[in-house]
Write a structure and sequence with these properties.
This protein is α+β, with helices and mostly antiparallel strands and 180 residues long. It has 2 domains: 1-79, Alpha-Beta Plaits, CATH 3.30.70; 80-180, no CATH class. It is built from 7 helices and 6 strands, in the order βαββαββααβααα. The strands form 2 sheets. The protein has a 4-stranded antiparallel sheet with strand order 2-3-1-4, covered by helices on one side. α2 (55-68) packs parallel to α6 (144-162) and α3 (85-91) crosses α4. The longest helix has 19 residues, at 144-162. The radius of gyration is 18 Å and the shape is globular. The model has no long low-confidence stretch (mean pLDDT 94).
Length: 180
Amino acid sequence: MKHDTNYHFILVLTGVDEHTPGLEDALFEAGCDEALVYYRNNVVFLEFDKAGECLQQAIIEAIKAIEAAPINATVDHLEGAWTTLSEIAARTSFTKQAISLFVKGKRGTGDFPVPIAGVNSTSPLWRWVDVVQWLCKNHKLTDLQCLADAQVIDDINGALELRDVAKREKRQRLLHDLLS
């Protein structure tokens, strides 16, 4: 018999704000009783500790519950897909200095993933899945579940983006132009 595991994740919402009438009650009644509702920087997000057979199932169930609530909320994205140097250190057993040496190529194989944003800033962002893949490939991280979870988060965020038909069609046209 397979037992459910508790999964921790954060879903960021659009279409609602801290003044949305009955927000917390509607989310609770829709089945989001395993989440805390937060408001920060004019953003509503839910922090879940949700049981499920796997992370993907738990997240998808949470998204469906949120979007079934009669408040017109949409899940924009799942937090955790992008990370800073400090967050990489906090999520792994490495110090910030060790991660910085990997980034600079002074330790490891010299091919640490490039940042996806902020390359010209003091706080660049990396795709968490790229970092975890690199750490696993280079035998710096042995937790293969961490890699699987990072891939799930990345894939769900990609699927959430694809739900916007206009964006999807525009990107398909751009992809066609790039490949021709």
